[in-house]
Specification:
Blueprint (H helix, E strand, L loop, with lengths): L6 H27 L13 H5 L2 H11 L9 H11 L2 H6 L1 H15 L15 H14 L5 H4 L1 H30 L3 H14 L8 H13 L7 H6 L1 H10 L7 E2 L9 H4 L23 H5 L5 E2 L16 H18 L21 H7 L5 H5 L5 E3 L12 E3 L13 H4 L10 H4 L6 E4 L5 H4 L6 H5 L7 E9 L5 E9 L9 H5 L8 E4 L14 H9 L2
């Protein structure tokens, strides 16, 4: 039989690769543009990508019991999947493009050697989806940890961008050292234009998980897409109703198994009776490499049975119960009794329970912060709040006339604020540690915190204090005093404090506007004071 590849599917495969490149570059360019543009308000952001993710709509709607209107755009994705199959994973998903690129590199370097058959169960991603949705029923939003867009953006924001920043800075320094002034200026200019933040807490852990996800492609091509992606699982459940079904011409097929060997997601094209429509991402590889052009995807309306995925009732029930049992563990935290003083949320953040129900841990707010003040939480917010944004004044501070973080949240966990609204929002309160403050403790003059306080009238005021020094001399200096009623907790005083190790003035989350109970005095104590004559 004459062997002739299908030119139609060959060019469709190339078109798909081009589409992947375009959407990844669009995602990455919007990622780069998510920084202070020299204006008060952003014109373009990457958050629109998130609004087309149906998994985010499902999880956040269940967890928060509300529907964020912008996420309704994801219904377009579901409708397209019903008609065209799981093409989003193969043609549009930027994380899918990353995994396919590295799978290609690993195959070229012979680190990845596709076998004839992959008998591993494809059920894990469906079970992960069940756990996420079951936990959402108990108002625990776990979707941000493995949602592809959140995972990719968080990895880029917290791990990749500081590496790029370091590379540009070091390249510029090396160029200057070698006398290449123009090259050094170009590197410095690029670093300034891109406005990458230089460091993040938890960057090592987040970066390690990203690299692990990439290296898993050495084990199986597009490992994440095959076994881990809950968004792919959700689309797979809808794709079985699509119009395009795989067909193998028995007169042309020579039983070479090339289609199954090179299938990127183990959809098992051959034999045709075992094709898994829910796993097919329509990459067109099988049809493009078929030596006799025996494979095609004609139009045919008929639901497909989910072959090869072990989702029996007992397994589904056990997994759902596991999610329901694990969910309360995330809420076991002393923060429900007393707030963590270090849990300073961005301005505009919703009340903590609702904030946790909506936050995707995507890192958009941390990326856009111009002072590198926002970081992924680890223990500050308890188990439920790992990688949600917190303000770390020792690294950065909340810029007074900046509301960028409120403009990029894809789910409304941080409500959008104008500049006029933002400057009135209280996210915490500053407190002076008199045992470390230079005028109080050592009798030395220092008014740095008062000079930097942006509030008008200033929340940090100066009072005269007398300090008895060891040599018996009384030193009189101006010392800071915080007006807790006007302080907004921006953290610039702590950030600029000249005491290096532990600043003499520190910001606590107490008094934040979003909470009715995180106050200076416990309600029980207030009640007792009211009872006193």
């Amino acid at each position: 039989m004459k062997r002739e590849r299908s030119k139609k599917y060959f060019w469709l495969q190339r078109l798909r690769i081009l589409t992947q490149v375009i959407f990844f570059l669009l995602f990455f360019l919007l990622f780069l543009q998510t920084h202070y543009p020299g204006e008060d308000y952003l014109k373009v952001t990457v958050e629109r990508f998130f609004h087309f993710d149906p998994l985010l709509l499902a999880a956040t709607a269940i967890a928060s019991r509300t529907i964020y209107a912008a996420l309704l755009l994801s219904l377009i994705t579901l409708a397209a999947t019903l008609l065209l199959g799981r093409f989003v994973c193969g043609w549009l998903c930027p994380l899918g493009a990353v995994h396919q690129f590295f799978s290609f590199i690993f195959k070229r370097s012979r680190l990845l050697r596709p076998g004839k058959e992959d008998r591993a169960s494809l059920a894990p991603k469906y079970l992960i989806l069940l756990v996420v949705l079951a936990a959402a029923l108990l108002s625990v939003n776990l979707v941000g940890y493995l949602d592809p867009l959140s995972f990719l953006y968080r990895s880029f924001a917290v791990f990749i961008s500081p590496l790029l920043n370091l590379g540009l800075v070091q390249s510029g320094n090396l160029a200057y050292a070698l006398g290449l002034k123009s090259l050094g200026q170009a590197a410095s200019q690029a670093a300034g234009n891109l406005a990458f933040n230089g460091l993040f807490q938890n960057a090592l852990l987040i970066g390690a998980l990203f690299l692990l996800a990439i290296l898993l492609n050495v084990r199986k091509e597009r490992f994440w897409c095959r076994y881990l992606c809950p968004a792919g699982a959700l689309l797979g459940l809808f794709s079985r109703f699509n119009l395009f079904k795989l067909k193998i011409d028995p007169d042309r097929c020579i039983n070479c198994h090339l289609c199954s060997i090179h299938c990127q997601t183990n959809a098992r094209p051959y034999p045709a009776g075992e094709w898994r429509s829910s796993e097919c991402v329509y990459c067109e590889t099988c049809a493009a490499i078929c030596p006799t052009a025996a494979i095609s995807f004609p139009l045919r309306w008929q639901p497909e049975k989910m072959r090869g995925v072990d989702l029996d009732r007992r397994r589904v029930l056990l997994t759902s119960l596991t999610g329901l049992v694990l969910a309360p563990i995330f809420k076991i935290s002393p923060l429900r009794r007393r707030s963590n003083p270090g849990l300073i949320r961005p301005p505009g953040a919703l009340a903590e329970p609702e904030f946790l129900n909506r936050c995707l841990k995507c890192g958009e707010c941390t990326k856009v912060c111009p002072t590198n003040a926002l970081h992924p939480a680890l223990a500050e917010a308890g188990p439920e709040g790992v990688w949600t944004p917190v303000l770390v004044p020792r690294i950065g501070y909340c810029e007074y006339y900046c509301s960028l973080c409120t403009q990029v949240c894809p789910t409304g966990a941080i409500r959008e604020l104008t500049i006029e609204e933002k400057v009135t929002v209280k996210i915490g309160t500053a407190w002076v540690d008199k045992t470390r403050c230079l005028p109080y403790a050592l009798g030395k003059p220092c008014i740095v915190c008062e000079e930097h306080c942006p509030v008008s009238p200033k929340a940090i005021q100066l009072i005269k204090v007398d300090t008895l020094t060891p040599d018996g001399v009384v030193a009189t200096n101006l010392a800071p005093f915080v007006n807790v009623d006007t302080c907004i907790g921006c953290g610039i005083c702590e950030n600029k404090c000249v005491v290096m190790d532990l600043p003499a003035i520190r910001v606590s989350s107490i008094g934040e506007h979003r909470s009715s109970h995180n106050r200076l005095v416990l309600p029980a104590a207030e009640d007792q004071n009211q009872l006193k004559p």
